[in-house]
Amino acid sequence: MVQKKFITIYETLRKDILEEKLVYGTQIPSENELVEQYQASRETVRKALNLLVRDGMIQKIRGKGSIVIYQGLTEFPFSDLISFSEVQKGLGLEHETEVEVLERITASEVPNVKEALEISSNTWLWHLVRTRKINGQVKIIDEDYLIEALVPNITKRIARQSLYAYIEQDLNLVISYSNKSITFESFGALEYQIFGDYVVPYTATVRGIVHFEDTTKFQYNISRHLATDFKFNDFSRRR
Amino acid sequence: MVQKKFITIYETLRKDILEEKLVYGTQIPSENELVEQYQASRETVRKALNLLVRDGMIQKIRGKGSIVIYQGLTEFPFSDLISFSEVQKGLGLEHETEVEVLERITASEVPNVKEALEISSNTWLWHLVRTRKINGQVKIIDEDYLIEALVPNITKRIARQSLYAYIEQDLNLVISYSNKSITFESFGALEYQIFGDYVVPYTATVRGIVHFEDTTKFQYNISRHLATDFKFNDFSRRR
DNA sequence: TAGTGGTCTAGACCACCCA
DNA sequence: GGGTGGTCTAGACCACTAC
Predict the structure, then answer these.
(1) Which of A179, A204, A207 is opposite residue B184, by nearest beta carbon?
(2) What's the CA gap between B214 and B212, in Å, rounded?
(3) pTM metric for this prediction
């Protein structure tokens, strides 16, 4: 099989919703219609639809059908802040990444990382600090610790472009999941140095431990955003 | 059927993981073993396991098996702040809710709510302000707007105890999903009044629009946390 | 080679909504 | 009653891991 059937169905419908071929508040074709349309079994169609449910794109209603509930980025008409997810997705905004630090250190030289990645003190790590400019202004300081044995040969060039592209495409490793936390913290020395004397000297700090498919932890990331420019959007379902 | 089979399997395994009968880093029984154990088909077992994957409880590895990746609340050994999800779940912490405001208003009297809930200006709403004390100190100001026609007869007693229990158990409505955002904002008049002259006059503000199963929006919630006491935990998978 | 998880099928029965 | 989504089955073939 060239492409998984349920992924094809999922991606096609997702695209239709994003492009508003299927519009907010209206029904999508029924499961039986999709079975016909894609020559798939109903369980396969349902697998695709469940991905859309997970994404917050559709809502299924028994006896009625499935309705598009995704409204693009206009859900929250409250602020014109730069959204965290927009930044992550690189939607429309002009990025510029600068590598401030790229060095090889051992886990003993920094606090917390040893515990976060469950490694011994003498494990070699890459220590990486990058700044992200958006429309000419530094908005994010990204600090990373990566296990060198798992992610070798990081260069400034790789760090400036895309670390994840290097890991996934060149090293052929599969990044799978992460645990993250968001807190608000006051500026430390690094932040004053990079952000300067900002009116509101606080950051939204996102810490994450990132894992490969085989559950190996390979990265500890600390992402510091100017707090006043930070917005995190979330879709969640009730258990 | 009294109870859905895949839910039974899911809940049993979930409980075993939470109670550490299945411990972090070890394998759970294989799909075929679970098929035997629960006298279910493999697809049913897989449906249960996929819920655990979604929850960040297990990681499936092809050719090998499924491994427990959930570690309780100890994943982030970085701060002893009060966690947002802990607060939400009411884990271990002493709550105290006080109702500051409970009134009937129309949508025209407040900004944003009309757009957020997609209602007309003359729609009647409940306006609710509650404060949440944790260990004796007010940490959260919860402000809600609810459509009266959908959620009638809210009393102070209901507001002090559990609004959601009232909606789900007494009114028999099914709360389904919400869109949320998290931002960092400076104190307004209400915050100064309730939190007082706090050293760090900023809040982590969580705004949410909450929907029923049939996609009806019924609630607009604004939850203001003392920024320095806020922590949001997240598990996410890479697409 | 044996065992694991990943995908897919064709059919069944059910609960729910609506005309 | 006809259409919708929700659950479940028994079997098939595949890709990957471990031995």
Answers:
(1) A204
(2) 5
(3) 0.87
